[in-house]
């Protein structure tokens, strides 16, 4: 039996709510923090209806998979992902199974660490305007979706309100200090290279991705989520080509539908049609299966 989609866990968790994001909810467990990944889906700064079944489970379990895979490269914030260890604070363990992550508390570094292996998306738009991406001068005549000779690090300053701000590496050093900036850059590139090679063995291109890091007792650790369809751009190798808009292995059906719906992006959108929701669930579960060789 397929469990219903989860739009919020507030009524299921007997612990103080610390933060409610577009997808994740954070609860106070004292020494640790409980992250619940819901099935909410967002686009253009709006949370859409209805939620997408299995999306949160994919995001949480895929992050847990990658945190384990990269543990030899950098420590992370995961304590455990077993809902049964939460005891009586959870009202419906079956519904939350696969959706929770108990994490160590860390001091978040307010930089979104972005690595790009291919020139596409926002990086392509920057290049068309200035010939640069985040202040990095690039060769003339690059084509959309072309691979960089070497991956590039393009950070963004995190804003709690509004969009994150693309910044140069020099500006990042001013914000967090040269030593930490260089650490973040090196670890981000190392993580991307590891995951890109892994994905390639499974017929998937990791075009770009983003990381968040924190400090715990002075040690740099990886936090939030990694290499999920919400934090990375995955392409099926079979669909790769230059100079086109490649169909990403994520919530592309939602973006495609909204672009053709006449929605003005300034008001609450109409509910997503069932076929769009079903196709989006299929996309998320497919990337999970292909990367982990497991079913949900």
Overall structural class, as computed from helix and strand content, comes to alpha+beta
From the N-terminal CA to the C-terminal CA, the straight-line distance is 12 Å
**Average pLDDT number:** 95
| CATH architecture group name of the largest domain | 2-Layer Sandwich
Number of strands: 17
Largest sheet: 8 strands, antiparallel
Instruction: Indicate the proportion of strand residues.
Output: 25-35%
CATH homologous superfamily designation of the largest domain:
ATP-grasp fold, B domain
What is the ordering of alpha helices and beta strands? EEEEEHEHEEEHEEEEEHHEEEHH
Q: How would the global form be characterised?
A: globular
Separate helix tally: 7
Return residue spans where pLDDT drops below 50 for at least 5 consecutive residues. Answer: none
What can you tell me about this protein's structure?
InterPro entries: SAICAR_synt/ADE2_N, SAICAR_synth, SAICAR_synthetase_CS. One of its GO terms (molecular function) is phosphoribosylaminoimidazolesuccinocarboxamide synthase activity. Its EC number is 6.3.2.6. The chain has 296 residues and is an alpha+beta fold. It has 2 domains: 13-105, Phosphorylase Kinase, domain 1; 108-239, ATP-grasp fold, B domain (D-amino Acid Aminotransferase, Chain A, domain 1). 30% of the residues lie in helices and 26% in strands. It has 7 helices and 17 strands. The chain has helices spanning 55-69, 93-96, 121-130, 169-176, 178-200, 252-260, 274-292; strands spanning 17-20, 24-28, 32-37, 41-43, 46-48, 78-80, 100-104, 107-108, 111-118, 132-133, 136-137, 147-153, 156-157, 165-166, 204-216, 219-223, 232-236. Strands 8, 9, 12, 13, 14, 15, 16 and 17 form an 8-stranded antiparallel sheet that branches. It has a 5-stranded antiparallel sheet with strand order 1-2-3-7-6. The longest helix is centred in the middle third of the chain and has 23 residues, at 178-200. It is globular and about 60 Å long. It starts with 16 loop residues before the first strand and ends with a helix. The model has no long low-confidence stretch (mean pLDDT 95).
């Amino acid at each position: 039996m397929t469990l219903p989609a989860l739009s919020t866990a507030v009524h299921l968790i007997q612990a103080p709510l610390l933060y409610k994001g577009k997808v994740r909810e954070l609860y106070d467990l004292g020494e640790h923090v409980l992250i619940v990944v819901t099935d909410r889906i967002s686009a253009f700064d709006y949370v859409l209806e209805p939620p997408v079944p299995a999306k949160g489970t994919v995001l949480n379990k895929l992050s847990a998979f990658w945190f384990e895979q990269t543990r030899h490269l950098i420590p992370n914030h995961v304590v455990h992902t077993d809902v049964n260890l939460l005891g009586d604070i959870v009202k419906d363990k079956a519904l939350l199974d696969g959706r929770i992550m108990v994490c160590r508390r860390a001091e978040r570094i307010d930089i979104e660490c972005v690595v790009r292996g291919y020139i596409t998306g926002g990086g392509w738009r920057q290049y068309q305007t200035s010939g640069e991406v985040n202040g990095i001068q690039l060769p003339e005549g690059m084509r959309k979706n072309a691979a960089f000779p070497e991956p590039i690090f393009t950070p963004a300053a995190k804003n709690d309100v509004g969009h994150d701000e693309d910044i140069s590496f020099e500006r990042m050093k001013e914000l967090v200090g040269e030593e930490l900036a260089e650490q973040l850059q090196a670890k981000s590139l190392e993580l991307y290279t590891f995951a890109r090679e892994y994905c390639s063995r499974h017929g998937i291109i990791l075009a770009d991705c983003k990381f968040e890091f924190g400090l715990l007792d002075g040690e740099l650790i990886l936090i939030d989520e990694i290499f999920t369809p919400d934090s990375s751009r995955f392409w099926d190798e079979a669909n790769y080509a230059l100079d086109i808009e490649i169909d990403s292995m994520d919530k592309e059906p939602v973006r495609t539908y909204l672009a053709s719906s006449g929605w003005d992006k300034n008001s609450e959108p109409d509910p997503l049609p069932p076929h769009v929701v079903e196709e989006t669930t299929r996309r998320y579960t497919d990337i999970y299966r292909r990367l982990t060789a497991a079913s949900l």
